[in-house]
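Section 3.1: Structural characterization of target chains.
Under the original work plan, the team committed to producing a structural model for every single-chain target entering the pipeline before any wet-lab resources were allocated. The record below documents one such target. The sequence was received from the expression subgroup and is listed exactly as submitted; it comprises 395 residues.
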Amino acid sequence: MTPIPDIEDILARLVAFPTISRNSNLALLDMVEGLLGPAGVRLERFHSEDGTRSNLWASLGPGGSGGILLSGHSDVVPVEGQDWTGDPFRLRAEEGRLYGRGTADMKGFLAVAIHAMLRAASRPLARPLHLAISYDEEIGCLGVRGMLDVLGTRPERPALCIIGEPTGMRIANGHKGKRALRACCHGQEGHSAMAPDALNALHLGAAFIARLQDRQDQLRATGARDDAYDIPYSTVHVGVMHGGTALNIVPNRCDLDFEIRNVAGEDPDAILAGIAEDAEAAAAPHRNRFPDARIEIEAVSGYPGLETAADSPAVALLQSLLGRNDPLIKVAFGTEGGLFQDALGVPTLVCGPGHMAQGHKPDEFVSRDQLAECARLLAAITDELEGSASPALTN
């Protein structure tokens, strides 16, 4: 039998692939399939429309429903403009930490999951173990949707999905939903010496931003709340503003990129409807002089929030496998969890090694202790799948 590579070796291989979002991840998947395929793992790819990226679905054990799904994304955020101590795409070990792009978010979990699949391949599993690896998660959870569109038509359903995003190996049962949007503000150009005779699209955009700030104040004061979050209410945030070509030209267009992050008790469509009213209120006073004055809002991307009941049998099972009953948490960042939950109707939790505080930064790292704790959890999962009659693993 071919020796199973250790977790750090697998992680080093994963980190070496610069799978920045929108770049190809096919070479990384070739490597993963080269490890899993000879071990007898069933493999299936779901390609992007242009064929440059793919999701990977890997399965062990009997067919049918039940069992556990482990899920992670293969893409990472860019490193440009960040001051790294070493090569971000070469794993570096120092004082119990493993440095490299994606070590925390979330190739560390993928390395442990691949290792667990290889170890489980020789076990007589009574329930299936699945691993899903997606692409383009970092730019709006875009890639996984094609795979879920297909899996959602199949009768087989896992009993539990674990998203391995970094939580310090705490169990998170929720996160906010997100809508990424673009507002195109249309004014009328003119010479800056005659600025009052034109409609400055940047000024129109600024007026819209002021109304978004008022909308945020309203959500904070009277909107739905969930005190499990550090920010316990829904938020509206403007991240990018583009407009203008020269100082002596009144710009006729301004683009704003903004987002909504909603708690489960807040309807994002209702928030967006209010924001559309804000856009009209900002543009309407100018329309007598400038008939084309308007603010158009278009959707860019988004994903649903995650909300798994604290009293779900899936929570109790994962707590027992971890061997502790820490209070549940909810994370500020988004995951693919809501998409899995909606598409497959599967109880979904977030639990993985490392901390998001180290993600997306120079010298990103995950600790060896965190990887070891994750490995113990996945070993316990394998034991449970081998002989379990647990109702929580039957779907």
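The CA atoms of residues 192 and 248 lie 5 Å apart.
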